Amino acid sequence: MDKTTEQFVGYATDLRYSDLTSQAIHAVKRSVLDSVGCALGAFRAEPIKAVRALASRVSATAPATVIGTQIKTAPEWAAFASGAMVRYLDFNDDYFGGSGDAGPHPSDNIGGLLAAAESAGVDGKALVLGIALAYETCGQLVDHVSIYTDGWDYPILHSISTALGAGNIMGLSRKQMGNALGLAIVPNICLSETRLGDVSNWKGFAGPNGSRNGLFAAFLAKEGITGPPTPFEGKAGFMKQLNCSFELGAFGGGQTAFKVEGTFFKHLPVRYDVQLPVGIALEVRDRVKLADIESICVYLEKRSVVTRAYHPNLWNPISRETADHSGPYLIGAVLVDGGITEKTFTPERYRDPAILGLIQKIRMEEDPQYTATFPRTINSRFEVTLKSGAVITVHKENPKGHPANPMSDQELEAKFLKQVDSVLAKKQSRALLDALWKLEELDDFNKLFSLMQVPAA
Q1: Please, are residues 339 and 312 in contact by the beta-carbon 8 Å criterion?
Q2: Within this chain, do residues 251 and 277 fall inside the same structural domain, yes or no?
Q3: What is the pLDDT of residues 329-364, one digit of tens each?
Q4: In terms of CB atoms within 10 Å, which end of the chain has fewer, N or C?
């Protein structure tokens, strides 16, 4: 094994539930609660129905259940289908670290880890531990790796994280864990073409697919399949491909907080770097008449800035996925409609001439001071020039859900219930909420999945 592999394998093999702090356990439950809410909120989306239909055609001797259903399928398919539900609305949690890279959404791993835990017949404590480990792995990599070098994409981090989290859940030996890591990394480095141009359904499925691949790697290793022993530092390994050598930091435990405690939650169903601009757009809407706007300059940190020259599709979205990843469109939609709803992501709205006309007046620029403080402090500023020549400036920092401006448990519950109540009766929604807050006490995953089950329409 190379040094980085040894560090990850040693930590993943040795970590025990007793090593988790009460803060870490509570943070895991917050992320699971939030993720299940996002999954059930996406339950009736057509692409999600298509994935569930595929999953339903596969059987297994040690199956796992797809969230919201009675479908018992191969664990890898349950991982993909459940993970796709969590991710589809772009409402699930996020993580930013020292590299300044966006994402990954660490909750993309939760579908895979639920499938691993149910298939392996373990209890809630084992699942909580596996999730804490996956979040720790994601956080370590985001803190130290610039994943977008030369067009690579972040789902490889989920392959790594789920392989280690599932390996812990499944009780892999140190040797097996090393093989799982090699089998997770080498076959699965993927491309950021996923998020360029006219964005497809794959945008929401790529992360969960990474998790599915990580679970598959853990299964292979458990059966004795060997993987490349130097996946990080080898001559053609991860570091070579990404042109990024790195050293891992201190892992969670003892006096070091776990990465899951630093999760970034979303209070709006849009990409994280648009959370603040959307809030500012609401304030601008109350202060000016749209007909009086000559131009809007949105100042952000460098990573969040997009230009019309490089991303023309973001000023002319033709799909749901492009619309929910377009800062200009989302700002324009809020200015016209006064908020973000599921209707925001329908052709009726993202092809609306009034919104499309308005967003042509929007441009984005970097403020170097904002770049210097990101992600510890996230800033955004609008400079709105009116046809009269007057300029209105509005600045905000740290959207609701940022670790420095956290969502309370009560606010996460309200977000959860707003989504879940759309598919479950209120009594069932609240019973599910109570069960998720007691996740570490769970002794039978059938109980949890029965509470998630959406009644037939």
Answers
A1: no
A2: no
A3: 999 999 999 999 989 999 999 999 999 999 999 999
A4: C
Which helix (H) or strand (E) is 396 found in, with range?
A: strand 391-397
Residues 23-67: pLDDT tens digits? Answer: 999 999 999 999 999 999 999 999 999 999 999 999 999 999 999
Angle at 252 between CA 261 and CA 5, to 5 degrees: 125
Instruction: Give the residue among 191, 231, 236 at the shortest CA–CA distance from 209.
Output: 191
pLDDT, averaged across the chain: 95
75-88 vs 46-56: helix crossing angle, rounded to 10: 170
Domain count, the chain: 2
Euclidean distance between CA atoms 197 and 371, whole angstroms? 25
Q: Scan for tokens 């998720």, then name that residue.
A: 436
Residue 441: which domain range?
Answer: 3-267+434-452
Q: What is the pLDDT of residue 287?
A: 94
Please give the angle made by the CA atoms of 196, 100 and 269, to the nearest 5 degrees.
55
Among candidate residues 185, 191, 164, 186, the one with its CA nearest the CA of residue 176: 164
